[in-house]
Amino acid sequence: MTATGASTGARIRAVRTERGLSLSALAARAGVGKATLSELEAGRRNPTLDTLYALAGPLGVPLAALVAEGDDVVGDDALTTTRLHVRHDPGRTTEVYLVRVRPGATRRSPAHAPGVREQLVVIAGEGVLETAGTTTPLAPGVHHAWAADAPHAYGCTSDVELVAVDVIVTPTGADPVD
């Protein structure tokens, strides 16, 4: 267990409690095992990026609300994200990440909270973005924006990492995903 896991677990528990959700209710909404969620909240397990995204949607919060300041790098088998900036303005939270998708990997993201918008600007590599039944080719210089309150995915189709800047804008007070 790392300090990252313990601080993230505490944040998950605090937001869940603030939302009035039981451990069982959040686990069911997020598609996460109740035992897994319990271990995360207790700081006995490190969260994966998949789990954090799965929990953020039903809680109606941006990913940044679950990851402590200073815990800026989160990754999984498909990608590594580095948080570059978080800005809280009246009505919205904007998160900026540098995303690196490994060659041949695809990152599938569950729906974010209602009203969330996402933008991707490709810096290097090639790949595809799947949103709302549409596939968009990705290459350096390509910019694409979409409603991120539906499942979406980006994958690397080149022999080098797909590197992109990902901007996620979450309305303040976004309703949790049921």
From TrEMBL:
Gene3D superfamilies: Jelly Rolls, lambda repressor-like DNA-binding domains. Keywords: DNA-binding. InterPro entries: Cro/C1-type_HTH, Cupin_2, Lambda_DNA-bd_dom_sf, RmlC-like_jellyroll, RmlC_Cupin_sf, TransReg_Diox_bact_type. Transmembrane segments: none annotated. The keyword DNA damage does not apply. It comes from the Bacteria. It holds the Pfam family HTH_3. Residues 12-66 form the HTH cro/C1-type domain. PANTHER family: HTH-TYPE TRANSCRIPTIONAL REGULATOR, METHYLPHOSPHONATE SYNTHASE. This is XRE family transcriptional regulator.
